Amino acid sequence: MDTTNTEKKKKRRIVIKVGTSSLIKADTGVIHLSQLAKICEQITELQKSSEFQCAIVTSGAVGAGMLQLGIKEKPKELQKRQALAAIGQAHLMHYYEDMFATLGVKTAQVLLTLENLSQKSQYNRAMNTFSSLFDYDVVPIVNENDTVAVEELRFGDNDTLSAHVASLISAEYLFLFTDVDGLYTSNPMKDPNAKRIQVVDDINKLMSEVDVASGAGSAGGTGGMVTKLTAARIASAAGCKTVIGKSTDMEKIVECALGLNGGKGGGEVTPSLNSKEYTLFLAAADAAKGKKRWMLSVPVKDRVRVNKEGEEDIKSGEPLLVKNVLISDSNGTKSSSNSYKVQDCIIVEDEEGREIARAIVNYSAEDLAHHNLRVSDAEEEFVHSSNLCVTHFNEEYRSVSRNN
Ligand SMILES: N[C@@H](CCC(=O)OP(=O)(O)O)C(=O)O
User: Fold this and answer.
1) Start-end of CATH 3.40.1160.10 domains in the chain
2) pTM of the prediction?
3) Which residues are in the Aspartate/glutamate/uridylate kinase domain (predicted)?
4) The architecture CATH gives domain 3-281
5) What is the residue with the minimal CA distance to atom 2 of ligand 1?
6) Interatomic CA distance for residues 235 and 279, integer angstroms
7) Fewer beta carbons within 10 Å, N or C terminal of the chain?
8) Is the CB of 217 under 6 A from ligand 1?
9) Predicted ipTM?
10) Sign, Cα dihedral of 221, 226, 230, 235
11) For the domain 290-390, what is the CATH superfamily, name and number?
12) Ligand 1 probe mutation, 71, 222, 227, 244, most atoms within 8 A of CB
């Protein structure tokens, strides 16, 4: 066979997010070295297989900073946490670098803020940088740039950051490793009837069935189940599958999800996955691309509800018209906090308040609330179709978008 013309095989990209609870021992506050070693070994195996390119999103900078200064309780003041992150980040990277160097893998530190990704030019720069890092066969180790992030432009938690990274690098899988073995119907520590959810293909349905708030994060971390669902929704819209599982089960989860043990499936979802100890979120059949994908990284300013007609239009790729946006009615019932401006990014909800899309709007809340505009400009586009990114996926949405 002529190998000179053989196309270079595209590698499968994977994002692995490791939470504070997996890296710092809760009782002593020290780095969990054996766990860190396991994570690095697992990633080394994937990276050296020539099939995968891996990025790590790691928490633990604040925890490592606390360890350095001998502080036992996480301070409430943001400023102090940001200082601790600055102290701990270098310490954390030192552990990763040492461990990976022993295993023969090179690493890079990438610190990002939501503000970076919300600027299209910086988003593109970051995308290209990741691409070059992968070409150099280096593992990017990502964290939020905690020291400079301002409140309104912070990811705030690394679950969300990891989903943005997965979207940015077109990852096939996002693994959210934590101290629980998946998403439960309620808190398994308190409710003996709590059941683990195996496969999720409709986040909105799931949110109506699950007591998400009960699955809060650990004391050392920031995220919980709510942030994991937000992450899964972003990743799914970007065409990436999300897995939530225990970091101690990392090896078997990664092997199973990626199809490394069975071989044949090549990582595709099979019914046999249903019996594994993690929760798998499926990806959108039609992943958002280009500008629509970038929109997933633009901070959301408000939420707006639409009627059934508006929902149908969004589903079939049509623009959202002014007349289909629900604004305050004569009883004063409001569908949004009315604070968005022209060209802001908002979440579009159905009549029941379930997220269906992200949108960049042509009118401000004030414009819309103005009666004259509503009557005369009802057929105007509130959002152009190129500025609408669907973030809700189930069978109905998939089959509609497939047919278009
Ligand atoms: N950027 C922060 C992590 C914030 C965070 O999301 O923590 P976690 O809930 O443990 O994933 C740090 O490095 O400490």
Assistant:
1) 3-281
2) 0.89
3) 13-244
4) 3-Layer(aba) Sandwich (3.40)
5) 59
6) 14
7) N
8) yes
9) 0.97
10) positive
11) PUA domain (2.30.130.10)
12) 222
